[in-house]
Specification:
Number of domains of chain A: 1
CATH class of chain A: Mainly Beta
Strand order of the largest sheet of chain A: 2-11-7-13-5-4-3
Order of helices and strands of chain A: EHEHEEHHHEEHEEEHHEEEE
Number of strands of chain A: 13
CATH topology of chain A: Jelly Rolls
Strand content of chain A: 15-25%
Helix content of chain A: 10-25%
Number of helices of chain A: 8
Oligomer: homodimer
Shape of chain A: globular
CATH architecture of chain A: Sandwich
Distance between the termini of chain A: 32 Å
Radius of gyration of chain A: 18 Å
Chain lengths: 295, 295
């Protein structure tokens, strides 16, 4: 077992709510980087920071082209880092894009990306996980409500809440095509989930999350207290969000697909230890143990 | 077989698009009733007319109370007019509420409701179908894209596009709890669907629509041409929409349920004949053959 566990989960018979008192959402200051004080204050309060236009039109076009290449890359055909929809066999996610693609490896080192991650976390950072998500039209599946940190803590051994995620839109996010929903302020509460982690839980949970899913009473309480914010915007827009935000997305019956690039940055001082509620860590592409500082 | 079929469907091997040339969306005039000319023009153009507040707060409270009574009415326990979710057994719809409930029977005769229906259809009207829809939180199912008229024509024998529906919100409609989506202007195009109607198709289609579902190429074409409008608003708000609007709704993972009252008015001159693409008509509560003019 690891150091003091501030966020026990999958260990009790009943769910519980644990206040986040030790770990701020913002560890750096306005002097450290691209974001102004008001944005840092907003991040502390809501747990997220939207960015209207993170990429220039030319950068966006290049990124979309790179994604198209990855989707049809024959060398990735049987790769475990490619996850498919249960019913249609369409690609749902491609992991490790910052390693697979030199293009994305360079892109995420930009000051607008790695620089903001360093500023929010007040630390050198590395990539804990990266992926492209595809939510196809005509029946793309929902992602149930969850805190990413709950999974990373329980199954990857991330000790503290000192990680931040970037969701970068590669298609337009409408209200109706399964766009990201966050309960603003929910990052301040840790929902301790019930149930033991089965062996190799990630194989099931990437397709449909079962374990590490908050109970309905806790979700109702958080939703009543915080409400739900839904993120819309054109391709190239983005949102930074704290590792403990309660978030999810509805299914998508419209013809309009939704895809985004998702990168998780972790503070180097918050590198992984043994999982807090699983027998062994998930595979490298889900929770990296190769903490190369981004320069 | 019935009179000339302007809207053949479930009869060809390939889907086809048929322009609506004979039946206007608005048959009456501003002189006939509550709606002003600009609203009638909007209805002609978009196929729908939103109403910010159809019910007063007191009327709304009474209607919500009546729905609560119906939900727990022991005399309706085994009634075929009560349809349940496949997975959770929760009530999804209660049909025939204008017959079951004296409260709703009186409410729909109000000039703000029956009066508007008469104005839009330029005719005396009767109720073709009425129901309460419940979309529970935490996994309420989607309604796939469809035109109601396609079903009413094929399975009920409604000859022409001279019917209008009222969707009256009984809970707040957010963007994220499965609210109604319509492709504005889509009422001008009839999508002829493929597939033969199986016997007693309604038993399956009320839970998950399979037959009478437009093909993806047609949906993509209509969505690209018309876009998608999503209706949000507080309980008590409403939307009138044409029988041939292409509409649907996403699933709902949020804790916030959605319920609405749905009433279909048909022009008395458009009373049902034999079904155009089914062996026998659906049950009375789905497509009424008891055309009592509303006074």
């Amino acid at each position: 077992m690891s150091p003091t566990d501030l966020y026990p989960t999958r260990r009790f018979d009943e769910p519980r709510l644990i206040y986040r008192t030790e770990d701020p959402a913002v560890w750096g200051s306005a002097a450290d980087g691209p974001l102004a004080q008001q944005h840092l204050d907003g991040h502390t309060q809501h747990g997220f920071t939207p960015v209207e236009q993170l990429l220039t039109p030319a950068e966006l076009a290049a990124a979309q082209n790179e994604i198209e290449q990855l989707l049809h890359d024959p060398s990735l055909a049987g790769d475990e880092r490619v996850v498919r929809e249960r019913t249609t066999d369409e690609v749902r996610s491609v992991f490790d894009v910052h390693k697979i693609s030199p293009f994305f490896a360079a892109m995420i080192r930009d000051d607008r990306i790695a620089g903001v991650a360093r500023q929010i976390l007040g630390s050198d950072v590395y990539v804990h996980q990266s992926r492209i998500n595809y939510k196809p039209g005509f029946g793309g599946a929902p992602f149930e409500w969850h805190s990413d940190f709950e999974t990373w803590h329980a199954e990857d051994g991330m000790p503290r809440m000192r990680a931040v995620s970037l969701s970068l839109a590669m298609t337009e996010n409408y209200h109706f095509n399964g766009s990201l929903m966050i309960m603003p302020g929910s990052h301040q509460t840790f929902v301790s989930c019930i149930g033991e982690t089965p062996a190799d839980n990630h194989k099931a949970s990437l397709v449909k999350q079962e374990i590490g899913t908050p109970d309905q009473a806790s979700l109702r309480l958080l939703a009543d207290k915080y409400g739900i914010h839904q993120f819309t915007g054109p391709a190239g827009s983005a949102v930074w969000f704290d590792s403990n935000c309660m978030h999810g997305s509805n299914g998508n019956i419209t013809p309009f697909p939704r895809s985004n690039l998702f990168i998780v940055f972790n503070a180097i001082d918050n590198s992984l230890v043994e999982p807090f509620a699983a027998d062994r860590p998930r595979p490298e592409y889900l929770g990296s143990r190769d903490w190369q500082v981004l320069n």
